[in-house]
Amino acid sequence: MAVHSQPARPVMLGQNQYGKAENRVVRVTRDGATHHIKDLNVSVSLSGDMDEVHYSGSNATVLPTDTTKNTVFAFAKEYGIDSAEQFAIHLARHFVTSQESIHRARIRVEEYTWDRIATSEAAAGPAGPDEPRHSFVRSGRETRLTQITYDGSSWEVVSGLKDLVVMNTTDSEFWGYVKDRYTTLPEARDRILATQVSGRWRFNWTGDEQKAPDWEESYEQTRTHLLRAFAETYSLSLQQTLYRMGARIIDHRAEIDEVRFSLPNKHHFLVDLEPFGLTNDNEVYFAADRPYGLIEATVLRDGCEARIPVDLSNL
Amino acid sequence: MAVHSQPARPVMLGQNQYGKAENRVVRVTRDGATHHIKDLNVSVSLSGDMDEVHYSGSNATVLPTDTTKNTVFAFAKEYGIDSAEQFAIHLARHFVTSQESIHRARIRVEEYTWDRIATSEAAAGPAGPDEPRHSFVRSGRETRLTQITYDGSSWEVVSGLKDLVVMNTTDSEFWGYVKDRYTTLPEARDRILATQVSGRWRFNWTGDEQKAPDWEESYEQTRTHLLRAFAETYSLSLQQTLYRMGARIIDHRAEIDEVRFSLPNKHHFLVDLEPFGLTNDNEVYFAADRPYGLIEATVLRDGCEARIPVDLSNL
Amino acid sequence: MAVHSQPARPVMLGQNQYGKAENRVVRVTRDGATHHIKDLNVSVSLSGDMDEVHYSGSNATVLPTDTTKNTVFAFAKEYGIDSAEQFAIHLARHFVTSQESIHRARIRVEEYTWDRIATSEAAAGPAGPDEPRHSFVRSGRETRLTQITYDGSSWEVVSGLKDLVVMNTTDSEFWGYVKDRYTTLPEARDRILATQVSGRWRFNWTGDEQKAPDWEESYEQTRTHLLRAFAETYSLSLQQTLYRMGARIIDHRAEIDEVRFSLPNKHHFLVDLEPFGLTNDNEVYFAADRPYGLIEATVLRDGCEARIPVDLSNL
Amino acid sequence: MAVHSQPARPVMLGQNQYGKAENRVVRVTRDGATHHIKDLNVSVSLSGDMDEVHYSGSNATVLPTDTTKNTVFAFAKEYGIDSAEQFAIHLARHFVTSQESIHRARIRVEEYTWDRIATSEAAAGPAGPDEPRHSFVRSGRETRLTQITYDGSSWEVVSGLKDLVVMNTTDSEFWGYVKDRYTTLPEARDRILATQVSGRWRFNWTGDEQKAPDWEESYEQTRTHLLRAFAETYSLSLQQTLYRMGARIIDHRAEIDEVRFSLPNKHHFLVDLEPFGLTNDNEVYFAADRPYGLIEATVLRDGCEARIPVDLSNL
């Protein structure tokens, strides 16, 4: 067998974490003939007393990633999935409290939304108590996200969404900007504003002694405020729209202290139809792929500290 | 300059076509403060008298793909976009009738659906006539598809959809199958049945002298029948479910003569929780990625000929 | 339990097939300390006496897709994987000859190429017989493809590749084309020509009594001819380049009778630098995503019949 | 026109940045008949005096993202592209020094590698000085990355790569780990170890007064050390392999102080062939997609501070 002595050490180990990523768990619950589903993608990441596994390959402090996978599926049975947040809290607490070598757990969850398919009978009126209701169509709306971090004493909960695509077909301008040698863009007094929202928001719930938010209600309300702020802002720049979206969430949702958005400006260019003897009165647009503007910012409740990373993770 | 004589010819040119693919056109129409949008991805493919461009590089019969792109955007202005089908019919007719060298045009369209964002005022009741309605969120439901082919005399219209993900959490069995040396699968009396529907349906409208279907109404109705057949079929195999989906469309939609589906069986495996002292009463599933069953079939109106290709195109 | 009688029948079943798609098999063979790997993605598709499974859900003639998956893995052990083609031939023959209800098998394979990682010792000279050689890096060059179809009497073998991206930075022109009302494109006497080749070629080997080609050698030679034809053609249109690529294969590879290519014209637009007081002498290009020209054609040995479908499958 | 007064302010603006992402620039240089290409994807991100654009939509301090795009293409002409790092340094310096309102610039670059296509003549021997050499095939090996950050006084350069897929078919074990109630994994004394390397390394070059590394040479050497450490480590855990890869880079490349890796454990499961009466002596594997182990860590030169973020950005 081969050598596994340590390399000579002018080299240090820094931050490290490990776990099983993208566990695709579907949980069915039954209320008579009515079924409910939760469809999650759960990623586990653990840190702690892990120097030796890096230096010598000793796994004596390592709970296998396969075990973390098993735990996800077992907990779906034992605790059910009331919300992605609640489920991830169960998991994080378990890993940190049950293994001495694990000092911190970070659980990330993607959630996919499903709608019920109306059956022929149901379509004719409200479904009766005995009618089967076990058929679903994936809604395809945005992916809901949460990330729970627990270090044995306090919690950090950052929820959010990605791939929420929105468009205003008017009430957007862009002018009065800096012009240098490389500026050719004409000013715009009426343009399409479209973006694919990636957002994260941090809750001020940090300890078990506090009452936890209603995670499901909080998500739906936050999403609604975000959409309305987008729709109702007369926009002079995407930065301004971003700020209004964040500020509206901070203003209306007392459980949230910090919001960060990453907003690609999905350019819709007005097509020049003059060569064809046609006028284009903001009617026909080319939806471009790349490059795209990218606007990113954090909006904070006054006095709060920013903790969401500058680069939002894709998972 | 370099040589472009023809290679010695024991070699023939077969079927060929060319055009501009994936023109991303967004069309806005305004009804006072209420805006409407159509968001399409249009691909043009032309065939005809094109031997010389292949043999010698002479472009004398070639309308540039760039021109076909311009035509898509100009027609969005000139004709508007009532439906993807109607828009593609305008385009196909134009290419075949305006250029002698073009004998056949095939136009493919992907359509993305957008929902309105309810603003704060609107949310409190029906939107008044003066309230702005120009804000949209992409619905993320399936992608709608159409393909129009025109050869100067008759039309072929094949519409459909892709990425419609559906699930039944019960009323699915699988047993009584052939067993050979390599069979290990246990029979199932109650399983999840889930698939990502890719479907195409061919209309019997072929000529300008016939009244054309209401394309928008036809799509919504066909989609509804497809979903209900999926939801209402007690399934002994995915093949049976597929057939019912197709048969229900043929039965209810007189304008459609042929349907083809490609249905990946998105396996949801019941997780074995026994090692953890837990029972899994059809509650916790692992959603697998690959491999997947793949079930494909055509369903036809009696006496009609099948024309949709065996392999559905992804675009 | 629910009803599964047949629907009233003005409806017929057309072409149908089923199987397990995307079985990801990696086969290791060992020659002392030197290991070899084959990395395949295998999709099985079977047809035959399958009416009842569609009409009534009876699985009496259905070999489960799970069994076809098991067979792929078992055959990797029993027969090894000399080439994707040879492996798929074993599988297709097995399904058709071992099950009465299966009349046709189509096996598709994607193959991923790996290169050896040179170790420190090996790098200093040729690897000695005892040096370990079990480390690989995925090459990332194109994906190799094959499709084997067997109906119990004759074989059809179509091989090919996808995602082979090539570029000529000169020796490409485009002019002399048709101009209509919607034409704005300026003629080009020196442009970049780039494409992402998707190609398929059909072998004239159809029966066990014929000597089969050397599949590995054939692939490497065909790929080389394709690349050289691309590089050595002074191009007046992408159609001309496509034809030369196909003709060169037909000319040089006697085992191949038909070639079809789907070539997206990956536009590289010369950037207008004049506004910045700079000239752009074919030096700086913008690589565009969409839309793209799409050029598709079949090239045939004289007298042969075209059988590769117009739309190349992505798998 | 609509209102754009500021919202009442219990809300603060935090970190923010903006720019044009994914500018796809291809630069051709010509040395007689021999052409050279650089193929980059450049993303610009600027920060500075940007409060007002968020609060009121005033663009008075905003250089448009469109201008940053133009600058990328103009600089490709004015400065050429010796290396992704050098090109990004030019850009970052320009934005910070030419605009008072811009205090920090971060430039990210993806680079795609192309190989020459050997032409028929060239293949017969070394290419002569007059033979055309303007044909390329994209290599498909990993994507090279760099990120340059400049605040007007010091530089941070983090380079790296993604999508480098590697595999050892032996010399990997995994045993001796923690077992809890949810552990079912059997210990392994000989397994496949495969991963898709995402790595970033930070240079200790921070100021113009220091001699800059040879960026091209540094990349090739670092990649080689990474690959060899992977190949030559007899692995008891992926963490150990990760550490060796990082330590070898720190040991051999004096210009690098910090390395971070994110290594998905691409599981290859030994297929159980016993039900078919076959033994599987580490020959046949199933390559799984999800879930996957995910191992992440930083390796540092002794005494240096870690600055690469825990979550590696995908772009």
TrEMBL record, chains A, B, C, D:
Keyword Oxidoreductase recorded: yes
Q: Which spans are transmembrane here?
A: none
Which catalytic reaction applies to this protein?
Answer: urate + O2 + H2O = 5-hydroxyisourate + H2O2
Look up keyword DNA-binding and say if it applies: no
Pathway(s) annotated for this protein in UniProt: Purine metabolism; urate degradation; (S)-allantoin from urate: step 1/3
GO MF terms here are:
urate oxidase activity
- What are the UniProt keywords, alphabetically? Oxidoreductase, Purine metabolism
Q: What is its EC number?
A: 1.7.3.3
- Record-linked Pfam families: Uricase
Q: What is this protein called?
A: Uricase
Similarity section: Belongs to the uricase family.
Domain of life, per lineage: Bacteria
Organism, scientific name = Streptomyces caeni
Relate the protein's function as given in its record. Catalyzes the oxidation of uric acid to 5-hydroxyisourate, which is further processed to form (S)-allantoin.
